[in-house]
Each structure stands twice: as structure tokens, then as C-alpha cells.
Amino acid sequence: MSQPLIQWNDEQAMLADAAWDFVRAKFPMETVRRLLESRDGFEHATWQEMGAMGWLGIALPEAYGGSGLGLGSLACIMEAMGQHLCATPFLPSTLAMQAILAAGSAAQRQALLPDLASGQRIATVAFTEPHGSWELRQLDTVATMAKDGYVLQGTKRFVLDYAAADVVVVSAQCQDMPALFAVEKAAFATASSRREIVTDETRRCYELKLDGVCVDSACRLLGGDISQAMRHLELAGAFLMAADLVGAANGAFELTLDYAKTRKQFGHPIGSYQAIKHPLVDAMMGIELGRALVYHAATFLDASEDRQAEVAVRMAKAHANDIMAFMADRAVQFHGGMGFTYDCHAALFYRHSMWARHTYGDAIHHRRHLAPLVL
Amino acid sequence: MEDALQALRKEVAGWLARNLPPRPAFKLPQSFLEVESQEQLDYLRDWQKKVYEAGYLGMAWPAEYGGRGLPPEHQDVVNEELARVKAPFMFNTIGLFWAGPTILRLGTEAQKQRYIKGILSGDDIWCQGFSEPDHGSDLGNAQTRARRQGDSYLIEGRKIWTTLGHFAKYMILLARTNPEAPNKYAGLSFFLAPMDAPGITVRPIRKITGEYGFNEVTFDAARIPADTLVGEEGQGWQVAMAVLAFERGVERGQAGGMVSFPLTVADVAALARQVHRDGHPAIEDPLIADRLVQFFIEERAFRANMARAHHERLLTPSRPFAPMFMGKLYGSELMKRLADFAVTIQGANAPLYLGEPSAIEGGEWQRSAMNAYGATIGGGTTEVQHNIIGERLLGLPKG
Questions:
Q1: Which CATH number does the domain B2-91+113-118 belong to among 3.30.1360.120, 3.90.245.10, 1.10.540.10, 3.30.1460.10?
Q2: Residue of B nearest to A319 (CA)
Q3: Among A60, A304, B36, B315, which is most exposed with the fewest C-beta within 10 angstroms?
Q4: How many Cβ contacts (< 8 angstroms) between chains A and B?
Q5: Residue A318, domain member (yes or no)
Q6: How far is A363 from chain B (nearest CA, A)?
Q7: Helix (H, G, I), strand (E, B) or coil at A156
Q8: Cα A205 from chain centre
């Protein structure tokens, strides 16, 4: 018979408890609001604490300073961070580590991963391009072999936390093959970068113009099947963002539920009216289903990264996108006039939704991939 | 226990391979809600008895009353196997799923001895007397009267939507013993009424599908023994709430099996490969394909959510009972939408219905779509479920 749809062990449960406690304590809404104005969007001290607790290396083997659990265990951390709109370089650094782990040689892994796992250094990924495809193997950026290295030509978008990063994993087409390079940011001294203006002011996204940047040949990740690694990164990104979105949807839900209980109109709390009550129940159900799909995807992803895992991850992201779209919309609408203001927290969730839903694939993208897999 | 369950799964699969009955020549009901003829009843009752006698029903019910006293995971394995082979459902649903667990929890020792075994064997068919013509969703307002007279009660009133009422030996009956009680709930009492009592008349009601299966039951000074009372007089509402928790799947304790033939998205995908639209299999239409994918996602999410209910640490702390509370509401609406979609992909042929020789798959999907309302209305309508979940689970104020 097939494996259980959901498995979650005590170690993972303890990690989840710690993650929720930490994020709740560190990210009250005042902090989230304050960080909107900051350069990096997060506090480096918080990042150091996350590193000290071992969270950054959870999905890395012990040999590289990790704890040897799978990617699935990160669901609870991403979910908690999503619920509290907590921005740290956790997503980009995790994906960069996954890229190095999947595609790097033993020496490259050994050289880069331990410092990233400890939080001493921060990494990000430069994958997305102006054409806007979520297919990581669709690359306009080109790497040309030159003396002692490669010359990169192209533009990258949505490079998260670039300003704070020490290492950037860049994708490029090299001799008609996709390639990945793990580059020290110092090498990008001649590249031009600028912060992009995005809806979600809790995030820091950068455009990176690689106009003939030269990188050392040792930067090219040479340890594995790059196509396979990129497929892994697509799924990892979708999975982590699904968890973030389900958390964020629940954050928007709790905010709105609270308001529905306290805000009075026509002499009664607005939550007593069925026009408010029933959609909130629908949202709650969608969020519960989303949580189920995220932990189902975590279970399958850690069991084996096969077709079944791909189905589960894509289902989770497609559903998470849809429920976040619904909940963020209802959060604004049910706050009435206040919901239309910049200062209402519903706005933060709504703006986060626009970024998060369109990071690592929207619902249509994932359903398009699901069709041949399930039909 | 894992090994024991594995062994059980193998054993049940083998037993089913040998014992699954062939589909009869006559039309079978899709669920317990539309058993209309004696031949349907005999077929389903034989099947239930066979499953019970093989030891695969009521496995978690106490052995002294006819069960086997095993952990519920054993019955779960059997249920999965029954669903996998699309075995016929357990027609005595009201006894097996609702009345039985309620009697086991709240009944007297004598009541457990008298009723449980017959529920499991299918010898005693049960029906439910909750809704009244004027009180459906507002169940607490039920007006059927029960007057104590010596060692019996005289019942006067009408109950409606009584599934299996025309075959039933017993009814779980909610009736008003004290119209002067301080509130409407406190005046209700709960009985295990014998349906052969003089003064009980059962009139069949035809359903939207054209089938029969439920009824209106009239009590004209019907005399039932006083020892059929469950709990004390005035505790009827609490007992009825226990029944509804079992009925809606909020609580576990059901005997086992299914209440209908399962509808799956895979069945609808198979249909979409068979029927043609514009000269091509419907499944090749990307709009149809995308709707199917959405249903696959919903179905997987629903199953994963039910599986999550067993992982305490994965439940949402502010609403740990959410997966159980939402099962009936979400599941019934999903099935209705799915069946309607199965109809709509049939295109211009979609109106062809049961009995029409050219109807696609015999018109069964059209029948399913209509029968799906049995679950979205019965056991508390979708609208009432929204109120209950909003108020009890989310703490929203009553309107």
C-alpha cells in the first residue's frame, strides 16, 4: 500500500513549537512595521539567533554543519514566518544552500555550506529573469568561457536580500546547458544593482545587471546534474512559499477574525452577520486544507523526490496561492474603510500576497504542470 | 500494531476478492438515502451481514455487545479496503453510524444488550425521527409530544425525511416531554421507539431524483415502552447532539464501512476520457483538464486534512477540532460540485437521465448530482454548518 499522506515526528513537532514561539516573540506587528523602513528589512541579530538555534542548517547533512533533516522540516519555520510577515534571508539563503548541496562538488559544499548554515554568512539566489518565467532552465543570461573563468551577460530580477548577501548563486546558460555559479559578492563589484520597488515592503528584491561580470572558474558548481538540481530548486522554492502563504493566510485570517468580533455596526459585532461569518468559515476551511497540503508535501518530499512529491508540492502551492488570494481580499474588504488604508495591517498581508503568490509559480503555472502528472 | 494492520489489510483484500458480490441486474441505490425496494434491501442486508459475520464490521465496538473490541485503526484499514474495491455501502447507516455509538455511550446496559447486535447484523433496521415538517434546521423547536402514561409514553406528532422509515424496526426519536420547560431544549427527551407500535403510519416521499427512500412518519397516540428512553427525561437535546456529532463525523465511534458508493475525481477523469466534446475526448479540452486538476487538488487536500486529524501536533492550536468540524460541510459540498461537473462535461447529452438507453453511464451522474443534496441538507444544512462552525469553533457572536 501507499505511504501515509502525512507523517510528522516528535523532533519536527518540537522544532515547530520553537519556531512559533520565536517568531511570535520577535515579530510583533510594530516590529514588522518598523522594518519596512530599514535598508535590509531584517535585523542581523535575529538572523544570528536563527543560526545559533541551528535552523539554517536543518535541511543540510551533518557533515556541512546541518542537522540532517529534510526540506520538509522547514515547513513549520516558513509557516510561522509567513503568519507574522517575518522577513529574513531564510528563503534565499536556504535555496542557495540547496543549490550548492545539489549541484556543488564536495569541495564546494565544504567550502561554502558550514558558514551559511551557522548564519555567519548569508547567501541568495539570482534565478529569475526579465522574461518572467518560473522555469529555472529558461535562461537568457549567458556564461561564456574566458581565460580563468566565465563572463556573465544578462539581467536577474527578484534577487532577494542582495544587499545583505555575501554569496550569490547565479544561473546562466553555458554552451547550451544550464549552469550554476556560486559567486562571492565581491566579484559583482562591476555589476549594477538596484532595489526594485515591489508591493511587499517587508521584502528586499534587487535587479542585478551582469554586464560582462567575470567570475572565477572555481565558482561553477560541478558536483551533479544541473538540470536535476534546478528541478529540485523549483520544487523547493514552491514548497517553501506554499508554507509561507498558508501561514500568511492564517495571519490575515486571525487579524480579520479578531476585528469581526470587536468591530460593531448597526449595534452588533460585524462577525454576527452571516455575510461576514460564512466567508470567514470558508477561509478557515481553505487554510486548514492548505496546512494539510503543506505537511502532506513535506511528507512526500522527504520520503523521495519523485513524481508523487512533485504532485504534492505543486498542489500545495496552487492551493496556498488561491486561499491567500481569497483571504487577503476578504481581510481588506472586511476591515471596511480602515482596510483601504496604508496603516491597516490587512494592507501588509495583501501586499505580501501579491509578492508571495507570484514567487516560485502562481496557481495557473502549477496546475498546468499538474495536468499531465495527474490526468 | 503496524504489522498486525498490514496483515489485516492483506487478509481483507483476500476476503474481498473472494466475497465481493456481483452487481445485480436491478438498479442499486447510490447511498443509504434511496433504498426503495425489497430486492435492493435484501441485497444490501445480505452484504452487511456477510461483512459482519466475517468480523469486519463493528471491530472497535465492545465484544460483549457483538463487536470485537479492537483498536479503531483495524476498522480504518477495513474501511479503506472496502472503498478501494468500491464495495456496496453499509445500508443500516443510522444504526451503525449514529444510533449505535450513541447507545454505546449513553444507553443503559439493557439497551446495549438489546439493540447493538441487531444493528451490526442488519437484522434490525434503524431510522431517525428528528426533523419535523415545521422544524428542520431549527431542531430544538421540535413539537412532537411524548406523554408519560404508566410504564409507557404516548407519542403524538409528525416526523419527516425519515430515511429507511418504511423498513425500520426502530427509530431514534426526539420528542417533547415538557412543553413548559424553562427553555425549548430542556423540554426534549430521546427515545428508541419501536416502529411497529400501533398508531405509527409511514408515508413515502418521492425525492428530487424520482426515487423513494425517505418518508413522513405520523404518530397518532402511538404507545412505546418507557424503558426506551435514553438518559433522563429532559436530556433529549444532549443525546441528540451526541447523535449529530457522530452523524457529522465530528466524533469517531461509528461501526465502519461507507454510507454510499464513493465518488472519486479519478472516476470523473475516466468519464472525461470516454465522452467527447467537439470530436475529441473531453479530457483533451484544457479548460476541462484544469477543472479536473482543481478537483484533484481539493480531493487530496480533503484526504490529507482528515489524515492530519490524527496528528495532534499538526492541528491548528486555536482550533484543533477544525478538521473534524469541517468534514461534513466541505466534503458534501465538494461531492455535489464534482457530480455536477461530471454532468456538465457530457455536453449536449447531459440532460439524458436514468432509464434513457442513450444516457451516458446510465444517467448515474445526474442521479449523483441530485442525490448529493442529501448530504448538503441532511444532518444540518450547509448554511447551518457555517453558523455552527463560525460560532462554536471560531467564537464569532450569534446573529
A1: 1.10.540.10
A2: B297
A3: A304
A4: 136
A5: yes
A6: 10
A7: strand
A8: 12
